[in-house]
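User: Good morning. I'm curious how farnesyl diphosphate would be positioned relative to this chain. Could you predict the structure with it bound?
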Amino acid sequence: MTADSAAPSGPGPDGPRHVAIIMDGNGRWAKAKGLPRALGHREGVQALKRTIQAAPDFGIRCLTVFGFSTENWSRPAEEVSDLMGLVRTYVASDLARLEKAGVRLRILGRREGLPADIAAIIDKAEAQTAHNDKFMLQVAFNYGGRADLIDAARRHAERILAGETTEPLNEENFAAGLATAGSPPLDLIIRTSGEQRLSNFLLWEAAYAELVFQDILWPDYGPKALGEAVAAFAQRERRYGGREPAPARVSA
Ligand code: FPP
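Assistant: Good morning! Here's the predicted structure, ligand included:
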């Protein structure tokens, strides 16, 4: 078995509370095995399940993953359809279990443009888990960082025009209009497959996050690789623009 399923070593005191992952490399994983890309994505869902299950053992309280970007619509129709199908299957098979485990599921991204049944599935999943507070799972789907910044600015302007506020735009009220509003500050962004860029993911939230790039392809990801990323994070000194090193995670 190539998939990473080793037991985690346990949480550290300076562990990241909010981790985001760019799950990259499904296509290359499938290609290397002579398999269709769809199977790479399907194995990607298994890796996601392993990672969600392991995350609390490292002290992680919130996990945000990039499932489908606004740019992914440019992929061949068959692949887009495969990815939509995975959401249907994943929610159908895992929602009850996630709800029981105390997971609050949130989908980040524009609802417009999504197939109507997917939008309905997402709304139902969010409503059904809204009361949970043990763990937050945010799936960015039809999400783009720039689009989210535009939406947040627009929301504030609309509130002013509607007479709901007279407050000038500031970091606090701007962040309250982002898709991630209400989630903990982002501590760590992981990207798999060796690529080293943000690809329009969490542009605002990334401001003081640590970045860890891992060579592993996403379908092979799991507790061992997550533990390595968390260990790399714990070695970092976060200064937030100041001179004094801070522990990797400061209490919010
Ligand atoms: C990147 O691999 C991965 C994606 C574009 C999709 C990620 C999605 C999943 C892991 C499944 C998501 C499941 C849910 C429930 C949202 P790539 O295709 O870009 O790989 P490549 O760079 O090797 O071609």
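The mean pLDDT is 92. The radius of gyration is 18 Å.
Let me know if you'd like a different ligand tried.
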